[in-house]
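Tutorial, part two.
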Amino acid sequence: MNMKWVANTLKFEAVAVGEDGQPVPMACPDPRAFALYKLWLGTKDDGRDPVKRAPDVEQAHTVAAIVTQHLPQLPFEPEHLKCLPKPVVNFASEGEDPFFKPF
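Running the prediction step on this input gives:
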């Protein structure tokens, strides 16, 4: 599984504030998809460089914390993640990572 599905998920659109104080439209992949992808990538034992795994999991937790605290309209619940590949949602919901519980 590669990152293509992250780019093909629903888009998240918001307005950010630029360095100059002006509004900047922002469009990016759903941050939940990114967080789940990084969690999956950081915990799969498929030959990935072990040095990269810890930062992957840390990035997953950081993005998930931001989403959970500041974007309540984007819940980490299976019925809201139907646009993601089933193996990734199942992996997160069945996994041991307490950050992504309860699913």
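The chain has a mean pLDDT of 83. In part three we will examine how such features are distributed along the chain.
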